[in-house]
Write the structure tokens for this entry.
Amino acid sequence: MSNRHVNAVIVGAGAGGGVAAKELSEAGLSVVLMERGDWASYDVHNNDELLSQRTTVLGNAFGPDDERYRRVVVNDDGSTKVVVASENDYNNVAACVGSGTVSYGAMAWRFMREDFRMKTTYGHIEGSTLADWPISYEELEHCYEKAEWEIGVAGDAAQNPFAAPRNKPYPMPPFAYNKEAKILESSMRRLGLHPFPIPMLRNSISYNGRAACVRRRSCCGFACPINAKSGTHNTAIPAALSTGNCELRTNCIVNELVTDGNGRITGISYFDKDERKQVQSADIIIISASATETPRLLLNSKSKHYPNGVGNRYDWVGRNLQGHAYTGAFGLFEDDIFDDVGPGATIAVSDFSHHNPGIVGGGILANEFTRLPYFFTGIRPTGFPKWGKSHKEFQRKYFRKNVQVVGPIQEMPFFDSRVQIDPSVKDYWGIPVVRLSGHRHPKDVKGCEFLSSKAEIILKEAGASYTWQSIGGKGLSGGQHQAGTCRMGDDPRTSVADKYGRVHETPNVFVADASLHVTNGGFNPALTIMALGYWVAGHIAAEWQKGNRFT
Amino acid sequence: MNDGIKLSRKDFLKIAALGAGALSLTTGGLSLFEGCTASRRPGTMFFSEDEIKLTEAIAEQIVPADDWPGGRDAGVANFLDTQLIGSYRRFQQDYQKGLAGLEKSCADKYHRKFEDLAWETQTAILQDMETGRLDGDVWKNGFSEYFFELLRAHCLQGYYGSPRHGGNKNYISYKMIGLDEPQIVGENRSGI
């Protein structure tokens, strides 16, 4: 039995795709939303650190699983290795309805105006494909606002003098600081910095029919047991389904775009939950599968009309893979600081996001999410034993007496950091897998060293008896903040999609996830991905209502 | 003790990714009990009688007893035994090769089993394994450092992870650091 033709098929029910499904189905389009994972269930998700999205040693709690998913990573020396999904080098993004928005830490950052104009602000950076976005902060502002109000953000933008201008405040008041943040607040103020409560996609008060947060330690990396964390799984996707215009298909693995004899993309083919090959035809195809899986799908869709894959005429699909090197410092204190008020991260400064001498971009600095016991076994001063008696003593002595200040550095896009298709390795369904290669730009290390030194100054001022820095990595970037692989731009020769996310070579294929990011800001990207979902789908809906069928 | 170990600055950043990097899928196709020919202790699933004694001794070195129980009493070997037929199936060959190699190294040099050696000698052997200084073909090409890191990470997981995976018996490590576990409905589940 073949599937009924629909107006739009969306691949990936995460931050971007979930929002797009809501916008299009509310505009009256018939929509099928495809998701490779399933709904996250309380039966399998609790507060088990070793099975969290943050510490994946025993597997990815929210998928993908180690049995069916694998990737190939190219080492520095050119050799390759195959990795399973729970290994760090896989660069996993959660596979479930809502994707990472179920288990994320839920920081709700808007990028700053400079983040959309990096080349104008900083000029050409040797060896980097640094560029401006084709859209400005001002153009995207109403989409940020929609994300904040419809999905739900708690915060107080007035306390951050560096935040870009906004038309409306956050819908919920900010979260109270935990003890760690209180200690840091006075230190930051003494240093002349401007601390403020981190905006969070989490209910500080009962909002939109969901309860207020109860501050559990197992929040970042976990599903919320009382549904106080806001993701697309408990906002946009249920809203889409309630229109009657949207069908969600879980456990479906999309393998390629279907092209007709004239080169028009007519739909997608996929393996359903019973592993049967099916086709879903649609007027419009929206890909929101993550910055690794979206290019994989485009590159795997080779045909006579698209010999290098869809959208890849100029070899830009999969390029410029970037994420965030996390960088910062640790401090040990004499007194108890751990107050078990989750999820830990509550305070930030944006003083170092831009206009730092000699640095391109920068990043926020925040207190880190709760360091759970196993995670904390990896936090030791440089040169300290990694096992044995003193390692155990350190765990006992400092689990409650440590502070971590950390931030994501804005990375310089690098053309040779990329997603390709591996020529031989296939996944469980026989689909060629992602092959990752490249490394970070040397400028990123400079940015990390700068931000870590600032973090250490804050900790010393806060009265730490001992401090040390950790400098963000130099290797392949990506991770849960992965972005940039189908960048938007005005010139089809140097970008994959136009300013509305439409793939240049096709009239009816769109991208709606972090793949579109030209640059990735010095902020967690989730709210920007949601805003892009509103931006892309809002454009499609408006055009559709004017009669444009994208032919 | 092992205070003399020199570490790179970023070692601990890699902790969330323990086990990442050095392995390939080539060990993924093993059947559950392949290679497990020696006699098993009743109740173990992967390890033989000898292997579990050895593993307990290693776990005790990684997390030694002091005022609080060590890796042996916290059930770390049980954690490993459980995971090696579960999430860590892909490490079965590494464990068999590494544990056999360690026994051989001890037999060659000391004519005794690892677990029967003096505490300080055991520590020194593990330090040698960590830094790639053990003699024997099995330890070549980085296997020594790789296998030690596997053992170290897995033992710490067994001691500090949730008891539902077979280690951290009676929530002992949570008690040690003053973490309120288990979380009880109506008591401490919602903390404000």
